[in-house]
Design goal:
The complex is a heterodimer of chains A (about 230) and B (about 300). Chain A contains seven helices and ten strands. Chain A has about 230 residues and is of the alpha/beta class. Chain A has a domain of about 70 residues. In chain A, a hairpin with a 2-residue loop joins strand 9 and strand 10. The longest helix of chain A is centred in the C-terminal third of the chain and has 16 residues. Chain A is globular. A four-stranded antiparallel β-sheet of chain B has the order 2-3-1-4. Classes of the chains: A alpha/beta (about 230), B alpha+beta (about 300). At the A-B interface, helix 2 and helix 3 of A face helix 1 and helix 8 of B.
Chain lengths: ~230, ~300
């Protein structure tokens, strides 16, 4: 059963630069997928369209039955509540503690204090940071900060977690650690998409790998089944 | 259930709004002092314009049409004239002043008058019986005067023509200028505050961006800022309110409520200052909320 279906997606920026040409892609529920490619291959654009920071110029992006491409700006938050996003630069709030950085998402959605506490601690436990709840981001290592960001992404139990270069700022050992955390999350049933240009990690993890090149799908290595209808 | 959620969110946002004022204190102070300064000017302008309006009204109330009645009219005819005047629109009150009364009043004014007037016999009194007519709307005083003049038996109508009209137009101009000043001050304040708050929010772009990314609706991003604006407006109006209450009542006490001449009477300080204070608080709060809301808009995708 496919969770994400991308059909004939094209993206041309107002400046006239085309980042993606007629992309077709299907991602199954519960999959762990890497999207790789050189700078300018369109992988970041694809990510941004998945969490609807950008709109495709043409084509459809269906996530869980909803055409994200047609979502109005003021409705975008409904999509974002159902997915988690992790960035290269962590995007933590420096004046909030680790706990608050994760909890504020739930508070914003109006959960009661008890629910917030239980879910936040569960998420922080999952990424292995239960001991650091009272620390501030500046007191943490890069890897720890990224784990806080992952905890924030999964705290509302999303069906999909999108990671845009999550290990871009981290050393190889720490990067692998982060990937292990993402694998745990994936094993709990969450669909995970990771954009990276870190070949080592991709090779070590042995997951589905989609290679983009100059805005086109070049290769799609999939263990097990291989969908012949897919363009490449 | 949904209502519970919204109340929790509102309480959280009120707490966050207050926290943010403390957290970004130097920037909040900029917005607060901006509101304080402009509200002070607005307070002076409002108090000034209301007092000008007050004493123009006092002067206007004194505007009187004097109706001179032909000497051959008997009491019955005079009553008929009174009735006809009363039937006109815009008439507030009519007071009768007989020529005997006028003569008596004049006698008191000087010894010469006294001597001359005392020599008249009753039938020799050359003065006219008069009606002193006050109108409801002093802007239409000349119109009413003209109508009264046409009534049979009316010899002459006087109401300080020319002088009253020019006074009226001056009051009108003063009032309009003051309204323009107050309104433009409020608009300028709003702009100033939008920009000051924009600067404070600029440093919190990242916070807004992150909130957007984790699924905050535009409304839920805006709400804490708008609540913050409310508190900034409230805090910013403290000094103007105190200045209004203590400053104006002190001024009133020191001057005895009279400025320059007996025509320029000040409003009684109570409850006047409380009304002005409420107006200032409302302006501060509305402008603070509006300013915040406008300033955040820039960082939202709508």
């Amino acid at each position: 059963m496919e969770f994400i279906r991308i059909t004939d997606v094209e993206k041309t920026y107002p400046s006239g630069v085309t980042a993606l040409y007629g992309l077709n892609l299907k991602i199954k529920k519960g999959d762990f997928t890497f999207i790789i490619g050189a700078s300018g291959s369109g992988k970041s654009t694809l990510m941004k369209m998945l969490y609807r920071e950008e709109k495709p110029t043409a084509g459809e992006i269906i996530i869980g039955g909803v055409n994200v491409a047609k979502l109005k700006n003021r409705k975008v938050y409904k999509l974002r509540r159902k997915l988690g996003v992790v960035f290269q630069d962590f995007k933590l709030l420096p004046k909030l503690t680790v706990y608050e950085n994760v909890a504020f998402v739930l508070e914003m959605f109006g959960y009661d204090k008890n629910e917030v506490r239980v879910k936040t601690l569960k998420a922080l436990d999952l990424v292995g940071l239960k001991e650091k709840v009272k620390s501030y981001p500046s007191e943490l290592s890069g890897g720890e900060q990224q784990r806080v960001a992952i905890a924030r992404a999964i705290v509302n139990a999303p069906k999909l977690v999108i990671c845009d270069e999550p290990t871009g700022n981290l050393d190889p050992d720490t990067s692998l650690e982060i990937m292990k955390v993402l694998e745990v999350i994936n094993n709990l049933g969450t669909t995970v998409i990771v954009v990276t240009h870190d070949r080592d990690i991709v090779n070590k993890m042995k997951k589905r790998v989609i290679l983009l090149d100059k805005g086109r799908l070049k290769k799609d290595f999939e263990k097990g089944t291989y969908d012949k209808n897919e363009k490449h | 259930m949904i209502r519970m959620k919204n109340i929790r969110i509102l309480i959280k946002n009120i707490r966050d709004g207050l926290k943010n004022i403390v957290r970004n204190f130097s920037l909040s102070l900029a917005s607060i002092s901006c509101i304080t300064v402009t509200l002070l000017i607005v307070a002076v302008a409002i108090i000034g314009s209301l007092n000008v309006e007050n004493f123009t009204n006092v002067i206007r109330d004194d505007f009187t049409i004097v109706v001179y009645i032909e000497n051959d009219c008997d009491d019955k005819k005079e009553n008929e004239i009174k009735g006809e005047i009363q039937d006109l629109s815009n008439i507030e009150s009519i007071e009768y002043n007989s020529k005997k009364q006028i003569a008596d009043d004049m006698k008191k004014e000087s010894q010469i008058f006294d001597t001359i007037i005392s020599s008249w016999s009753e039938s020799e009194n050359p003065l006219y019986d008069t009606y002193l007519v006050k109108v409801k709307d002093s802007d239409k005083i000349s119109n009413s005067a003209k109508k009264i003049e046409k009534i049979d038996g009316v010899a002459l109508v006087k109401y300080g023509e020319g002088m009253i009209e020019s006074l009226l137009s001056i009051f009108d101009i003063i009032e309009k200028i003051l309204i323009v000043i107050v309104v433009s001050l409020i608009i300028v304040t709003a702009f100033l505050i939008v920009n000051t708050i924009k600067i404070t929010i600029f440093s919190r772009q990242e916070e807004i961006e992150i909130k957007r990314l984790v699924g905050a609706s535009n409304f839920s991003i805006k709400q804490p800022f708008v609540i913050e604006g409310l508190f900034i407006g409230l805090i910013g109006s403290i000094i103007p309110v105190l200045v209004t209450i203590y400053g104006y009542s002190t001024l009133y006490e020191k001057t005895g409520g009279i400025l320059f001449s007996k025509f320029i009477k000040l409003f009684e300080p109570f409850p006047f200052v409380f009304i002005i204070s409420s107006v200032l608080i409302v302006i501060g709060v509305v402008v603070g909320m509006f300013g915040s809301s406008r300033a955040v808009r820039k960082y939202l995708k709508i």
